[in-house]
Specification:
The chain is mainly α. The protein has 4 helices and 4 strands; from the N terminus they run αββαββαα. The chain has a domain of 61 residues. 37% of the residues lie in helices and 7% in strands.
């Protein structure tokens, strides 16, 4: 009995599928993807939410909801410490607040100089200015609170930036960009691998 003949449309569909398969590569390792975001590595915050870690999520909620962040400026430091600290470092959120310089050079107000000359610089020791140390210590809690909040928002903003970049790519190159959402991890060994491993032990 002869095998049933395929329709022209079915043969064309199969041909197109195989032709596309020749031009594309099947990715079996996530490290081969251009960008990978792991749900387990995302900050679990109010502005970065997913049902993946929220048992009380409602049906139909998006799998990932990330809000763009707004950053506060560093709280203004007291005038007393400005000459004794790296002001650029003070504007960067880090784990540790910049320390005061142990010594600084300041113009000598008592030196006699001509009108077009700069007064000579004199070294001043921080130990002789306890009011500067007190102002620094009063300011420290404000700076540390600002820095911690800035770093928290920065972690969320990095995720937002990655997703926004992907969104832009899809809009521009939707026909060649693939977005994959994976839940769980499947790992297996073929029976041939198991046979070799058992033979080696």
């Amino acid at each position: 009995m002869d095998a049933p003949q395929e329709s022209k449309a079915l043969r064309l569909a199969r041909y197109l599928k195989e032709f596309v398969g020749l031009r594309s590569t099947t990715v079996r390792d996530v490290d081969k993807y251009e960008t990978v975001l792991w749900f387990g590595d995302l900050p679990q915050e109010t502005d970065c939410r997913s049902p993946a870690w929220d048992s009380g999520a409602e049906h139909g909620e998006p799998w990932l909801d990330v809000r763009k962040q707004e950053f506060r400026k560093v709280p203004p430091p007291p005038e007393e410490i400005l000459q004794w600290i790296d002001q650029q470092a003070l504007r960067r959120a880090t784990g540790e607040m910049p320390t005061l310089r142990p010594t600084i050079l300041l113009p000598d107000p008592s030196a006699e100089v001509n009108v077009d000359e700069e007064p000579p610089l004199v070294s001043h020791s921080l130990a002789d200015y306890p009011e500067v140390i007190r102002a620094y210590e009063r300011y420290r809690p404000n700076w540390e609170a600002w820095s911690a909040e800035y770093l928290r928002r920065e972690r969320i903003q990095r995720v937002y930036a990655d997703l926004f970049h992907l969104h832009t790519q899809i809009l521009k190159q939707g026909e060649i960009v693939e977005l994959v959402l994976g839940l769980g991890l499947l790992s297996w060994r073929s029976s041939m691998e198991e046979l070799f491993q058992s033979a080696g032990t």
